[in-house]
Amino acid sequence: MNYCPGCGAGLVLRVPPMDTRERHLCEACGAIHYQNPRVIVGAVATWEDGRILLCKRAIEPRYGLWTLPAGFLELGESTGEGALREAREEANAELALDAVLALYDLDTIGQVQVLYAARLLSPDVSPGEESLEVALFTWEEIPWDTLAFPSVAWALRYHRQVQGRPGFPPDTGTKSRRRD
């Protein structure tokens, strides 16, 4: 960040009073510009027979690879509302959320991911604008070699471990960008 979004003046990196980290400061208007992690929301959504919904990405990053229906949380919506919206946008899917499945703190890329365990209300899904293709996969059919992000594999494996367990605990913690 080079210029203040408020007044257009140049920014300096400095530790503000009563802070412990360098921030982008505007010496002209006094604004402090914080850079915070982005929140990603999504779901591991299953149909009654246990098949899992995946979407083939029609956007970068990772164009053409498979992912869960997920994306950036919007201002003014809860994480659950965001997960439901992303499923509609990416797969024209309607879901019922069961519980938070996983919370991944991806500090190396500035993301916090909140993923839900969910049930599809209908197996009738189709690609939205951000998907080339959507499909329901059995565990054996999951295209492991073409998953878009490590967190997709983490969430799928954790979901398999805890599925059917009432009140399962969410998978939480700091994760790295390394592939499994």
Description:
With 180 residues, this protein is of the alpha+beta class. It folds into two domains: 1-35, Ubiquitin Ligase Nedd4, Chain: W (Single Sheet); 38-171, Nucleoside Triphosphate Pyrophosphohydrolase. It contains two helices and eleven strands; from the N terminus they run βββββββαβββαβ. It has helices at residues 79-91, 150-162; strands at residues 11-14, 23-26, 32-33, 38-46, 52-57, 66-67, 70-72, 95-106, 111-120, 131-137, 171-174. The model has no long low-confidence stretch (mean pLDDT 93).
Layout of secondary structure:
Blueprint: E1 11-14, E2 23-26, E3 32-33, E4 38-46, E5 52-57, E6 66-67, E7 70-72, H1 79-91, E8 95-106, E9 111-120, E10 131-137, H2 150-162, E11 171-174
Parallel strand pairs: 4-9, 8-11
Antiparallel strand pairs: 1-2, 2-3, 4-7, 5-6, 5-10, 8-9
What does the largest sheet look like? 5 strands, mixed
Q: Write down the domain tally.
A: 2
Q: Helical stretch count?
A: 2
Strand content: 35-45%
CATH homology group of the largest domain: Nucleoside Triphosphate Pyrophosphohydrolase
Kindly name the structural category. alpha+beta
Distance between the termini: 33 Å
According to CATH, the fold-level topology of the largest domain is Nucleoside Triphosphate Pyrophosphohydrolase
The CATH architecture of the largest domain: Alpha-Beta Complex
Radius of gyration: 19 Å
